[in-house]
Amino acid sequence: MDKMTTFQPGLNGVIAAETKLSYLDVEAEEIVIRGYDLIELAEKQQYIDLIQLLLHGRLPTLSEKQELEAALKEEAHLSDSLVEILDKLPKGTHPMDALRTGISALAGYDKNLGERINLEKTVLRLLAKIPAITAGSYHLLHQQSIVDPDPSLSYSANFLYRLTGRTPDEQEAAIFDQSLMVYSEHEMPNSTFTARVIASTNSDLYGALTGAVASLKGNLHGGANEAVMHMLLEGGSVEGFRRLLLDKLSRKEKVMGFGHRVYMKKMDPRAALMKEALRKLAAEKDREDLLACCEAGEELMKEEKGLYPNLDYYAAPVYYLLGIPIDLYTPIFFAARTLGICAHVTEQYADNKLFRPRVHYTGPRGLHP
Question: Which residues form the active site (predicted)?
């Protein structure tokens, strides 16, 4: 094969798009978001600041930030008819399937569906509705009442409140906001690529996001945070967790929360940030035992396999100490990533080329009926 038709399994190393949105600089250990270091943004800014940054390439002024908050609060409620649709789902429905259904159904309520002139309004609508669908569908699946938004709370604090039904304190709200920021955008993972492929056909934003949800549901992309928390609970103690990991390694099982297609030989910088967040929450809630388990697992995997934690490894216990049900960890991942995906779809529309790769054929030839 010539250079243009070289087969790369999983498209590993293949450049699929040009983007001004983000870049993973592994050597510099930096996640670049529109020229900024994502970790520095997460330490100094808020999730809502990223909306303006990713969509328009600059951080918002105070007045622009206030306008964004107001626009999101206007769209924070779910219509009675959409709630009725979600309530009719079988009670055993996976939360990601409920989220996918909710986003798909939401398209029917958009009178300007597919109109590019109103694209930013659609993005803001989705950024408001997807957290509401994430929390609301979960409560309905568990035969609980939907938690209505509290207009006095910020965007991220409101999201956490609607998930747990409990008003978060200042530190909890700040840590949850930080977690949304580090999940918000990460170059070209499978779900973002899926959305860009769908958008390249001129499909609408709801369709692109619906496909992205289906992609993120797969356990090789999303779901690692949930698996990590189940392992931590199963281990129960430092020694118990070490034994659990060693047993998995002896059976050559994949240990979720470690390794990354891009961060092969270094720790995911987002994981380091969430590790510090876990340290703060563990001290506040007297759960240093959970932090100790995580640190023991981190050290063991480094010694045994040369693997480092990814974001999901430390985000999982952070969400656990915030009181979030484990089944919601992956839907929250998607709710946060909605911003990055919408920015990618917007960029795809602006300079579109239909994705149409070729294959490396390995089947028979020359057969006759």
Answer: 260, 312
- Say what the pTM is: 0.94
Find the radius of gyration of the CA atoms of the chain. Answer: 21
Residues 6+ apart with CB under 8 A from 136: 78, 83, 86, 146, 147, 162
Spans of all domains in the chain = 223-322
The Cα 337–Cα 180 span in angstroms is: 8
94 is catalytic: no
pLDDT tens for each residue of 105-155:
999 999 888 788 889 999 999 999 999 999 999 999 999 999 999 999 999
Of 15, 133, 38, nearest to 76 by C-alpha is: 133
* Active-site annotation holder among 260, 289, 327, 368: 260
Residue 312 a catalytic site member? yes
Residue 22, φ and ψ in degrees, nearest 5:
-155, 160
**Topology adopted by domain 223-322:** Cytochrome p450-Terp; domain 2 (1.10.230)
Among 177, 204, 268, 312, the active-site one is 312
